[in-house]
Amino acid sequence: MSRVTVFTLGGTISARGGDAARMTGREVLTALGAPEDVVLHDFRRVPSSTLTHADLADLAAEVRATVAAGSGAVVVQGTDTLEETAFLLDLLCTTERPIVVTGAMRRPDLPGADGPANLAAALAVATDPACRNLGVLVVLADEIHAARHARKTHTTSVATFASPGAGPLGTVVEGEPRILLRPATPTARWPSTPRSGWPW
Ligand code: ASP
Question: Domain 4-179 adopts which CATH fold?
């Protein structure tokens, strides 16, 4: 298995029941049963609607450094702005290594919490050589979506992420990623040369 680094940013996957305080990154990984050999960056502990451009610029820089060092990356955050984070990372992090963004729709204390399965699927994709060169990926509910197509389509469903007009690139079947389609170009592209000095 290749190396993987997990960045935890908060969101429902790290919620403690009705308590506003989020779990630490280590608590999230332990609660989700992540293997002990993953490298953890306890990056932020916030609802995803409060992530700022500066947070995402820092995240992109750290993810770029991580993949340049030969590791796959998994970003764990709230689902409300998950598609925006994934699309931005796709623009800012050009690499053949898998970068996977995931989260959860149900809190860890609810029956049928989806966080553990989503994290396990994300780790499987991030460490699978067959999932390289696909750009940044969104993995939830055992589906693998290209960041540039992924959308949150429902407020509460665990199968909320979809790729309207395109469809998922693949699925995760009992822990094993299966890629069905490869995009003609692996990553999203800036429509024009970005202004310098981002975040604006
Ligand atoms: N409100 C949460 C967030 O985006 C929703 C979630 O995690 O699914 O942080």
Answer: Rossmann fold (3.40.50)
